[in-house]
Amino acid sequence: MPGSLPPLTALRAFEAAARLSSFTKAARELHVTPAAVSHQIRGLEKYLGVTLFRRTTRRMELTEQGRLAAEQFREGFERLARGVSQLRAADAGAALTLSVTTAFATRWLVPRLGRFMRRFPGIDLKVRAGTQPIDFDQDDIDLAVRIGRGGVAGATATALFGESVAPLASPAFIRQHGMRRAADLARVPLLHDDSMRRVGRTTGWADWLGAARARAVDAAAGIHFDDGHLVLQAASAGRGVALGRLAYAVDDLEARRLRVPFGPLLELDLKYYLFVAEARASEPAIAAVRAWFIHEAASFVPRLQAVVRAAAARPDR
What we know:
By secondary structure, the protein is of the alpha/beta class. It folds into 2 domains: 8-91, Winged helix-like DNA-binding domain superfamily/Winged helix DNA-binding domain (Arc Repressor Mutant, subunit A), CATH 1.10.10; 94-317, D-Maltodextrin-Binding Protein, domain 2. It has 11 helices and 10 strands.
C-alpha cells in the first residue's frame, strides 16, 4: 500500500506553478487566486519538510529538490490523465462479444446486466451463448466465461468463483414426499445435470449417492438435462430432486424457491473462469469489462459462501 500522501490540490498547484514558472499563470489554469496557489505550495513544503521554491524579490525559482519533485509529479499527473482517457475510451462506442453458456448467461449474467449497462453505457455488448471450446483465433469473440480448470492456449484466465453441488428440490416437493434422508430418493424422480461432462467432470448422482451411502437408489433413473439452468428450473417446478450447482441456485435458495433437503455437499475441483486473449488483455474496453467481472464476482462470493455453508451444515440423515 502507498504511504500517506499530501492533498491532491496542493500537488496540483505545485505541478502547475513549476510547469508554468508562475503562480499567476498556475492560478489562472486552476481557476483560483494566486494567493490560493501560494498557500497550497507553502502547505506542501511544510508537509514534505523541504523547500520547493527559492523566493527572491523579483521571481521565484525551483530549488533542486523542487525540480526533482516537479518531474515526478508531472509524470504522475500524466499517468492519471492517461488512465482517465482509457476509462473514457472503454465507454465510447466500443463493441465487444462475450461467449458464455446459456446457463451462465441466464443464472448469473442477465441479473447483472443492468449494472453493466449503467457502468458502460457506450459499450455495445453482444452475448453469444454456446458450449463450444474457446478459440480466440478462430471465433469472433473478445471475452469468454467457462467452468473448468483454466488453461486455454493464448488466453489469460481469471478465476471468478468455485462450484459445489447438492440435492435441490422445491419446498412443496420436499413436504409432499417427506424428503428427510438420502434413502428417500428411491421414491422420487432424480434430475440430472450432464452439462459438466463437456469439461471432463462426471460428478453426478452416482458420486453423490456413494458419498451419502445410499445404495438402494438407482443413480441412472430420472430425467437428464444438458444444461445447468434447465435442471434447476425442473426442480423448482416440482418435477423431482436435482443434483444442482449451488452457484446457479443462489437466487432460488435465498428466495426459498429451492431447498437443500439433506447432505452431503460435494465441492467440485472446477471454477468459473473469465478468459481474454493475451494479446488484447490491455485494450481499454476489454480491461475495463474484465475489471467489472472481477468486482461482480467478488461481491457474489460472500452470498455463494453463505449458501455453501448452509448446505454443508445440513446433517446426513
